[in-house]
Specification:
Blueprint (H helix, E strand, L loop, with lengths): L1 E3 L2 H13 L4 E6 L5 H13 L2 E6 L19 H10 L4 E3 L3 H4 L12 H4 L3 H4 L3 H16 L3 E5 L3 H14 L4 E5 L19 H6 L1 H15 L5 H14 L3 E9 L15 E9 L2 E9 L3
Helix pairs in contact: 7-8, 10-11
The structure holds pantoate.
The site of pantoate (PAF) has 10 residues, from β2 and α7.
């Protein structure tokens, strides 16, 4: 497996593979790889001939008071994990390589959706994500790109971008990977103390309780949201948002739920650590 830091070198390398008729899968990450990322790399290795894992802590998707400086960086361990799961190339550019003129003047945005849910608490986050993902697509020209469903709003916005701007890439969603305890894997879990980690299990417990109530016929948005919120509050968490939204438009639901595919999206804090999670409510 090769570690490449220059855009030009990556382009040249991938051009050779493409000429040989090989397909390319891209797994965009910010590093600190865990089993969740491994499942994305596995999915790419199963589908594409060549898997590129990008490792880039993208500065333009972090707000001023967020964790850009303390975000875990460990390229060596990341390379080992990626290699073990069949990646051919790690693309690990510097911020200067990706943004030679500093913060860009040109962004990819989705004005209505970028300011909902996570976006309403993290202004500028999704335009930073869409812009770097668009750059990665144009640098790698992948046939497939793999994203985890934990970042539900992110993958939805990326799919919208690909449709709207006609990027010739197939987006593959990969289901959330959870610890046995139910906690969704995230690079930010390592910020949690032992007690916070235990308390954070209430997120998945609440989501499961709401899903069972939904499957048993409960259709009140207030009641279902409360089933998610209460366990988090009882376990010393604070809720940033819990919303039930349409899976096809991300429109927020109020009142009484009708017959459509829905997902519960949430963000909650345990201590200073912000965690996100979601669960689809099946049966339409
Ligand atoms: O999900 C992430 O890790 C990041 O938002 C992504 C997609 C790699 C863009 O920086």
């Amino acid at each position: 497996m090769k570690i490449i830091k220059s855009i030009q070198e990556l382009r040249d390398t991938l051009k050779t593979f493409r000429r040989e008729g090989k397909t390319i899968g891209l797994v965009p990450t910010m590093g600190a790889l865990h089993r969740g990322h491994a499942s994305l790399i596995d999915a790419s290795s199963a589908r594409a001939d060549i898997t590129v894992v990008s490792v880039f802590v993208n500065p333009i998707q972090f707000g001023k008071n967020e964790d850009l400086d303390k975000y875990p960086r460990r390229l060596e361990a990341d390379s080992e994990l990626a290699n073990a799961h069949g990646a051919s190339i790690i693309f690990a550019p510097t911020a200067e390589e990706m943004y030679p003129n500093g913060e860009p003047e040109t962004y990819v945005r989705n004005k209505p959706l970028e300011s909902l849910y996570c976006g309403s608490y993290r202004p500028g986050h999704f335009r930073g994500v869409l812009t770097v993902v668009a750059k990665l697509f144009l640098i790698c020209l992948p046939d497939f790109a793999f994203f985890g469903e934990k970042d539900y709003q992110q993958v939805f916005l990326i799919e919208e971008m690909v449709r709207t701007l006609n990027f010739p890439v197939e987006i593959v969603r990969v289901p959330i990977v959870r610890e046995e305890s139910g906690l969704a894997l995230s690079s930010r879990n390592e910020y949690l103390s032992e007690e916070e980690r235990k308390n954070a299990l209430s997120i998945h417990q609440g989501l499961l309780a709401a899903k069972s109530a939904y499957l048993a016929g409960e259709r009140s948005v207030t009641k279902l949201r409360n089933l998610v919120i209460q366990p988090i509050l009882l376990n010393r968490g604070s809720v940033q948002y819990v919303e039930i939204v349409s899976t096809s438009t991300l429109e927020k639901k109020v009142g009484h739920l009708g017959n459509e595919k829905l997902v519960i999206l949430l963000a909650a804090f345990f201590g200073k650590t912000r965690l996100i999670d979601n669960i689809e409510l099946e049966m339409v």
